[in-house]
């Protein structure tokens, strides 16, 4: 066994020297101090690089199908009242949603931008008398209510029990509801009075909507709808020009992820000419963000161009703010990474070993230089 230990001892690459033979110098102490400081600084730098995450970007073809596109918005219209402001969405597949109310919140604001009232989108109000039945009489006790559609019934047994249902029946017929005061349901719900009460107010509308992941558009218009044709029929209430000035407080597609920038956030546009259509053309890029812990966020980025379309003389156009979006076939993936621990340890060892070696060479050079200089001085004195 002793022979084995002796052979292993002969492999020692770090032979030890008795402390009696050590020679400590001032220059060696200074070099050791400088080397230690350099090691510490470089170690801190390497540790910072190890802890710092780096985002890798990759472009791939988007092969997803049948997904939905989530749109978040917060837009202020200082010159359009909440009752007269509606949100529509439609896409190239033919699907359309008119006067969207689900997940929509509206805030009535005054001319100074102060909030008057916040409410879920919808029309409601107290009933002023017993409802008018489809047959012409008033609703009696133990009688089922079936309101008249005022000539817009699609069948003999169709009922319109609210102002909204009457307006929907008129839309299907392609008729304009020009005087809600004559409609019993609207009178009971105070719709006409609500429009008059909100005259001169603005509206902040915010919320979200979910649409098919295909090209389409959504728009905010100050009008009612007539089937698939949109004609503003509220000029009876407000004969002034449509003012579509607006401020986009927030507009995003999908969830937020670190570093995401929405180019339309904070954009404000003030209308100079009456009426007209303000159009935004958006190119939506599907994006996947994967955090350092493996958490994945499905989202989207977008680029935008904008255009204002002035009203044509002699032709009535639909004033409003339109967002036309199209989807990019390329998907962007962001992945957070950092260097591996083994790579970090390799760099630390290289720093310590490299500085130690260089410091030893410098110390040896300085020591032998001083030693040679002293020897020459001693020879000079003897001579």
Automatic annotation (TrEMBL):
GO CC: one term?
A: endoplasmic reticulum
| Record keywords | Membrane, Transmembrane, Transmembrane helix
Concerning InterPro entries, the annotation shows: Erv, Erv_C, Erv_N
Q: Which domain of life is it from?
A: Eukaryota
Could you list the residue ranges that cross the membrane?
Answer: 21-43, 341-367
Q: Which residue ranges does the record assign to the Endoplasmic reticulum vesicle transporter C-terminal domain?
A: 149-363
**Compartment(s) of residence:** Membrane
Q: Where is the Endoplasmic reticulum vesicle transporter N-terminal domain?
A: 8-97
Q: What is this protein called?
A: Endoplasmic reticulum vesicle transporter
| Lineage, highest ranks first | Eukaryota, Viridiplantae, Streptophyta, Embryophyta, Tracheophyta
